[in-house]
Design a protein that fits this description.
Blueprint lengths: L3 H11 L3 H17 L21 H6 L10 H17 L2 H6 L1 H10 L10 H4 L2 H17 L11 H10 L4 H6 L3 H16 L6 H5 L2 H14 L6 E4 L9 H5 L5 E3 L7 E3 L9 H5 L5 E4 L10 H14 L1
Antiparallel strand pairs: 1-4, 2-3
Helix pairs in contact: 2-6, 4-13, 6-9, 6-11, 8-13, 9-11
The chain binds iron/sulfur cluster (SF4) (2 copies).
The site of one iron/sulfur cluster has 13 residues, from helix 15.
Length: about 300
Amino acid sequence: MKTIQEMKFIQKLKKLDNKQRLRYSLMIIGILALAPPVGFITQLFGSGTLCGNLCPRMAIGTAFTRELFTRTAGVALLFIWLGITFFFGRWMCSHVCPAGSLTEFGSKLLPGRFKIDYCKIVDAPLFRYGFLGAYILLPVVGVASICCAYCSFSVIPETFGALFVPRLANMLTTGSRIVSILLFVFLLGIFARDGRGHCHLVCPVGALDSIMNAIGAKLPFTYRERIHLDDCSGCGYCATSCPAWAIQVDKSAEKIAKIDQRKCYQCRLCESKCPKNVIYYGRPSRQKDHRNEKFVEQVLISNTIQD
Ligand code: SF4
Ligand code: SF4
């Protein structure tokens, strides 16, 4: 017999809009491509997970060491990842990365009252850039690397994979792996508001990705999550729905709502929450010519019910 929580989960799935359906579909493909037990892309590089030659975290962790030259696949993946972000926004973090996707899906099974809203408590960009600095510099100054001992990229897919592959379960019983499971899978994962506390705070790939997102967003030809400010009413629904607290609403300013591209990871939740339908994914010059009254009416009703 289905539990109440499971039934709520299925109801939520049925209510998803097309953007979220696309996102969840790509997240599942990302898991199948890069995480065990399937991992059809990682298998090509001799590992069931992103751990190994393909690891973009290692490419960052060895940035100023000779080891970098042995990590061609990881460096290539990192460049592809950041290149996509520069031109099109954070598709890799929000739609593909299996570490973020697995804990995000896991967190949906947990009632909201048990979750911690890390982005409300901590200045996420400041924390993650500090972590990134330490992550790169510690091996350079001769202190041990924190790359593999505590790694969200490997431990989250491995924990999930251990449900299907007994060999992985044995690997997870060593000291640092147990700490990593508690930290990344539970505390910063399933128990985070959007299941992505580790993405916001301690992922070096996510930190570089957010810098690239903010730099690229300043250019007129790049695609990002943006707001048509002429039509924004300043109601603030977008700000409260954003799991990364990336939107500030200032009613006294000319530009009422503003997206902080260092924080935004392009989950696209805010688009469907805006009653004026003025949040969109695209170039800055794109005109909002597709507003339709039926959509606006539906969002207003949905927001009123949630209030
Ligand atoms: S929900 Fe829409 S109208 Fe309301 S503040 Fe955000 S962008 Fe503006
Ligand atoms: S601003 Fe919108 S797309 Fe970006 S993280 Fe917040 S809700 Fe998601």
